[in-house]
Design goal:
Four copies of one chain form a homotetramer. The first copy, chain A, has about 375 residues and is of the alpha/beta class. Chain A is built from 13 helices and 13 strands. In chain A, helix 1 packs across helix 12 and helix 6 packs across helix 9. Chain A is globular and about 65 Å long. Chains in contact: A-B, A-C, A-D, B-C, B-D, C-D. Chains A and B meet through strand 5, strand 6, strand 7, strand 8 and strand 9 of A and strand 5, strand 6, strand 7, strand 8 and strand 9 of B.
């Protein structure tokens, strides 16, 4: 693991989620840019001292020398955004599989470089767009694919938060500081941090691609260097229309990622904060509430059934969704190691292509926000 | 009453709502463009035959001849949209107060003519934007006004419906037919029918004005002559940003008008289909659910308290909100008749000015939808 | 109308609800035990002075002298509980149809006398158990009747309130005062005021009869003369079991009447405070949410369709449920006057039999609460 | 670990939950009564072959011989109910700390033996009543303790399920089979499996004790040997009254454990299926929704704050609640090993005393269900 030092948020989430199924063990790490902190974290994790590294470059260098059976199988990258690219690049080049936090890189140029590298090296690359790991999101995707909603006409997707409604970054709060710093986060603030999740969710469930964006980015908190609110009209590649909005200044909202997909035959609705329910509607029929863990879920979506660890009524949540991405990723890695072809179900995790889409989305939104034209075509 | 003949929807709603408080009695009417039907409706309403008229012009002509104490006090207009203007104009000119269904007219030119007429005649003009009649909407308005949310930053308002997801107008369904006919409905389909309600609700609660619109109008159902889906980015006059969307093709949605208002201090949320609850949020505090009919409601909003007929837990709904507009309107009419100045509370009903705003909103959205520019300033 | 003087709650509800459909007009009344107040109320209602009476006995006496076409068609009784019996008795004897607030009488002896009188006189007797007027309650009843739930096994019904959590009656609050006074309310406090609604709702929806009760009545507020909390186990006549509880000391609860009915094939759930939704569940299938006003509602329940005034998504609530009882009652009265046989649909309103059941229920609960035996058979 | 062989439900839940925090490692096990299956499970868990045992007695015998630093620190018991007692007894006697699934034993006699053994040996004994591990349950407990609700008057607690609405045990389904078999489950069916959770939750949150029970047990499914529905009136030791009901035949219900606590000052409500929210109510004030992970949660309850791994809006659920019990249990075990006094916060997990209460509850309910007397005092 690279990143996830003392006090880091997402690195610890990766560790907890990765442990759940008992398939993953952290055996090596360069956890912090400060070697002292990296050592401390390694000790906290009860790791052997010889596998705690001061830098990721050293980790790569030393691990590659170990016999294959002892060496790490893959590397998780959970550093601030600006480090994602060089680390992922170097890991891939050295021959390691990679699980990378989103956004994959700071620019689409870098993103495409990684895309090429993945193609060239044949390594497995996972991108942690964790929200698509929820079983009910997988059910939604499969229902759309089966045609239960008919041809899609309209998508509304949102990701409102309120935690940056004040200048939290000026209080020294770590999460706020790097997220509002263009050097560490890239050109997008709110749009890069959470808008991308909304875009990824919409494309994942509908199987469609966003083709045009009309965006308005705003920085409401004085002195902030990046946008903290993002409102977009969108067009999709089948002619569908949509709305995508995200915010960090919507007080009282937490991680209220939610989506409504409307087709010619029916519609569906899902909310991340109560993730065990999927709502569907059809013409002149009672609404339906699909509840995770029931027999009828697996009957309608093998991916949803497979991503379920507890029976109905015992709620599952964020960690389990996260763990689902790790589960499919590790199963694919295992297949690669064993020289087998991974199944379609185990390939169901966000990859380098989703990473490229994410960066293109951010760059398109930023460009559109500066444009006086209504529509900006999605960058390629 | 003009309009509201046999089978008409909104006319019957007006009658039921107007009756609740026992202050209004229908004593005269020209209910249908077909005199036979008008007669039939009058009989169904057990009215005296001499007050059932074949046309509204005849009604005006005859009623004005009656002594003031016998004559109708005001005229409700519940015809299809294209008739609103001439009838309202003629009623005002003849010296009658008017309650008119929305949209007030087909064009802003007509709307401004009415505005001038109202100013000139001094008559009371009510516009039935019924959703602002809900007590919890009034509470929301008063909380924003008191500054409970702080300076407003963002507004999200929606009005999704699904009933026109198929070409219902081709089946002869009356409601669908005139609503999708530009001659009867004007330039806006979805935007005119329900988008205006969303705009009106946003301006009513926030006390702000929409200044710029970036709109996308779509007609999803083949052969339909007007838009059936409307997505907008908006700017408000204090610098706030927003999203407004409405739809007639969102299957399973009914009248899901809902609004989220985000300020510097807090936020609020309201849903028309469960109208007795207002949700508010503040920084680092539990969410609050305000429930209609409680003592603390009236303490925070005299208008909400006044617009309440039942104690908490006995739900009130659409008819009662409708009746609230009638209640304030009739109280104002009574004051005018009595030569008294109406109180601010009784003046709390949508009027000719909201009617003008509504038409300008429709025309601006239609213009923006045709424009390649991102922002179209609100017409004046 | 008898009762419903200035400041009275339920009398005004009766009036507002009775007006909605434009079928009922209040033409005579003895509104208050204080003749001055009765006169005042009559004036407020803009009634002819000659029809405002000082006492109900005088009203009966005078009205009966009028020609049938001028005379009142029926009498609504909205006085405190202790007056229900004598007034209803005298009205029936005089030949008037009666709509009576619940509970019908103070004792089962009186209740049975009324039952006999109704049988003997052939007059129409309506009892205002308003909650069965909700369309979704009617849908629930019809779904159970059709067997959609299978044989019923378990019923949970509740009616928690919190408004009497303190000694409100000592502050002079009128509603609290008579409800906690055994002389005006009879032997049951909470159980009589709202427990009866729960029992009535359970029997109405399931079509079953409560046969045994095991009750615990508690008075939590010191000095209060009647119970303010009621918890019961119940048995039903098909072998089903259940729970019925009501409370006036559950702070924050308002009129949270709700019911869960579980059968061999499925279950249903309904909540009075959000009355437009009925929830049903079946084995290995998504939950279903039935929403008032949709085409599929009327297809499944003629009574629900008939009890609906607004299309789906335009919420209806308490007044409309109330008005549904009046609607069916008046249609039955009309039939009687016209010498026609009322339809089964128009006979769908609570009557003298439900009144007797209600009083028997109260007396059985009070007896059970005093008993050391687990089960007390329902009184007959 | 004892139990949790191939196909077992709760054993796998224990493993997943125990892994999350990275503090617990399964190093030894006797996973199945069939040695072959035990071996298989051990291999699946990638354990050293020498630590996979055929029987728990052998495990105890061998492990105790290992040096303390290598030996297992504690034993988790996840077998069917009838095995809990002998295994726990033997583990304690051998000097191991124990985490035991509920119910602790089949009889109160056995339960008290364990209680004595724990006292005598001084070993740490955890009982997996996992629902009290939810942060919002801990917040509820602390709010009651601080007096935010005032003196408690009424408790309503429920645990409805529907999965045994048909004779599932006759299909060979493993979970259904042992749960409906008195030899493996003891005297209580529904009451033992889930009624105990409801009782435990009520006593945990209120800090009160159930003193009297009036119970009705029913077996709705023909041929079933144990009750599948349980309805109780209860009395608590401060004079509070309550209702406790559980069911396995309520179709569509899953694990709908929920509680309402009403005090003199306010009330609270919590639902296990949406566990991240706690609802509170006070007199004449808006309802409050407390959401897990916010700063104000930790400010009101150190135990809730401590039991939280993700920021607000990233939902946590069943596994994390489960892990909280393991977390506090292991911290206490660590303290014992280190010879330190565990903090009050780390002692916040269900223990042998809760185990005894649970069995007494089951025995009292079974006795009350057979009694004709209304109230049966809680066994001691």
């Amino acid at each position: 693991m690279v990143g996830g030092g003392p006090g880091a948020f997402i690195g610890e989430v990766h560790r907890k989620a990765a442990r759940i199924d008992g398939e993953i063990k952290i055996v090596a790490g360069a956890f912090d840019i400060d070697p002292v902190k990296s050592q401390q974290m390694g000790k906290d994790l009860a790791m052997g001292q010889d596998r705690i590294y001061d830098t990721y470059t050293e980790m790569i260098k030393q691990e590659i020398k170990l016999p294959e059976s002892e060496r790490i199988d893959f590397i998780s990258i959970t550093t601030p955004n600006n480090w994602h690219f060089p680390i992922a690049r170097d890991c891939l080049k050295a021959g390691f599989h990679v699980m990378c936090e989103k956004p994959m890189t700071l620019t689409s140029k870098e993103a495409k470089q990684l895309q090429d590298l993945v193609k060239k090296t044949g390594k497995v690359f996972g991108l942690m767009h964790n929200y698509t790991g929820y079983p009910m999101v997988k059910l939604a995707k499969d229902m759309v694919k089966k045609g239960d909603m008919g041809e899609i006409r309209k998508v509304v997707v949102q990701y409102p938060q309120g935690w940056l409604a004040t200048a939290l970054e000026k209080t020294g709060q770590m999460q706020a500081s790097w997220r509002t710093d263009p050097k560490q986060s890239g050109a997008g603030g709110c749009v890069g941090d959470i808008g991308t999740h909304a875009a990824n969710l919409a494309e994942y469930i509908t199987g469609l691609k966003i083709t045009h964006i009309c965006a308005e980015l705003t920085t409401f908190v004085k002195g902030r260097l990046l946008d903290d609110d993002c409102n977009c009209l969108i067009k999709l590649n089948n002619g569908a229309k949509g709305i995508l909005h995200a915010s960090q200044i919507s007080i009282g909202e937490e991680h209220n990622l939610a989506i409504w997909v409307h087709g010619e035959q029916g519609s569906l609705e899902w909310h991340q904060e109560t993730p065990n329910y999927l709502y569907t509607r059809a013409i002149n029929a009672p609404d339906q509430v699909w509840k995770r863990g029931n027999g009828y879920i697996g009957e309608n979506s093998a991916a949803a059934g497979r991503g379920t660890r507890l029976p109905s009524g015992h709620p599952e949540a964020f960690f389990e969704a996260f763990a689902n991405n790790y589960k499919n990723f590790t199963e694919t890695v295992k297949c690669m190691i064993a020289g087998e072809k991974p199944s379609e179900l185990s390939l169901d995790f966000p990859s380098v292509n989703e990473g490229v889409r994410g960066i293109l989305f951010i760059e398109t939104v930023v460009a559109s926000a500066k444009s006086k034209q209504k529509w900006t075509p999605m960058k390629k």
